[in-house]
Design brief:
Layout: H1 3-83
């Protein structure tokens, strides 16, 4: 092989190596972005479900607390009527 042929082979090898590195990194980035997008969608769905569950739990807690406060208000009103009878 002559000197120009060797340099040509080195150039072809270098170009094909850099081309494969570029192609591989591009494909890897596409896969990585797709996986991150899927993870983002899955986490968004789980957070939405958690938000709905918490809203339901808070609504139930609010209803129980309202019932307790109404009972407490009724008891305090009864005590107040007994201790402080209405005087004309």
């Amino acid at each position: 092989m002559s000197d120009p042929q060797i340099w040509t082979l080195i150039g072809v090898f270098a170009a094909s190596t850099f081309g494969m590195i570029g192609l591989t990194s591009t494909l890897f980035l596409r896969v990585l972005r797709a996986e991150i997008g899927g993870l983002r969608g899955e986490l968004g769905g789980q957070i939405g479900g958690l938000r709905g569950e918490l809203k339901g739990d808070l609504a139930a807690l609010e209803a129980r607390m309202d019932a307790r406060f109404e009972a407490l208000d009724r008891d305090i009103s009864a005590i107040a009527r007994r201790v402080f009878p209405d005087e004309p």
